[in-house]
């Protein structure tokens, strides 16, 4: 069983989550609830849970304040939030699980199943990335978590040169020559990196615009990146790509 604590300053949210867990998540047993950062600290120390469902904004502080006050995070966390789109992008980059209020039972069950498989050592890396991403203002100052079958990579966006589709997988190419294959589609990364200086030039390629070296018009058009790799430009993207480069040069 997954011993779980719910921390949220809204009574109806705590009650709703407890009922949803009882009804839809048979692996979970709720061993305590709390309504503030202070009482959350107490219940975690007392119950030593495997998992915490944690509100972000509470009357006496934030869920981040609570986590940073603990000597160690030896449990998994799923954040429960009504955060805006900017903050949600930070969660996706950091591969930290979150649920939007009001909580969808199906999403809750998926998040619980993921938490049961999560390696806790990895969560400390992920929460560090989340702190950095939430503080970040410049688009490419953000960090992203990439999980492979046996490793977890923490990368600055500026160090990603391009991403390449490989069926249901994506290979991320970095400035130091690494090629990291991740079990996510290129479309997922295209959406995640939207507004962060990345552009999908071809059905199989997303590039970091800051690593463009030049645009070659012959052979249908292709981009030469800083690592001298040539990336084809889809015919329907050619004019848009040229207009984008002109705007970048202004």
Mean pLDDT: 86
Total helical segments = 8
Strand content: 25-35%
Order of strands in the sheet with the most strands?
Answer: 2-1-3-6-7
Percentage of helical residues?
25-40%
Weakly predicted, low-confidence segments: none
Q: Any idea what the CATH superfamily of the largest domain is called? A: Response regulator
Give the number of DSSP strands.
Answer: 17
Basic shape: elongated
In the residues, how many domains can be counted? 2
Largest sheet, in brief, is: 5 strands, parallel
Structural class: alpha/beta
Kindly, what is the distance between the CA atoms of the first and last residues, rounded to a whole number of angstroms? Answer: 59 Å
Q: Kindly provide the name of the CATH class of the largest domain.
A: Alpha Beta
The CATH topology assignment of the largest domain is Rossmann fold
Can you write the helix and strand succession as a string?
EHEHEEEHEHEHHEEEEEHEEEEEH
Structure report:
The protein is of the alpha/beta class and 250 residues long. The protein has two domains: 2-135, Rossmann fold, CATH 3.40.50; 159-248, OB fold (Dihydrolipoamide Acetyltransferase, E2P). It has eight helices and 17 strands. The protein has helices at residues 11-24, 37-47, 63-69, 85-94, 105-117, 120-135, 186-192, 238-248; strands at 2-7, 28-34, 51-55, 57-58, 61-62, 76-81, 98-100, 143-147, 152-156, 160-166, 169-174, 179-182, 198-202, 205-208, 212-216, 222-225, 230-232. The strands form five sheets. It has a five-stranded parallel β-sheet, with helices on both faces. The model has no long low-confidence stretch (mean pLDDT 86).
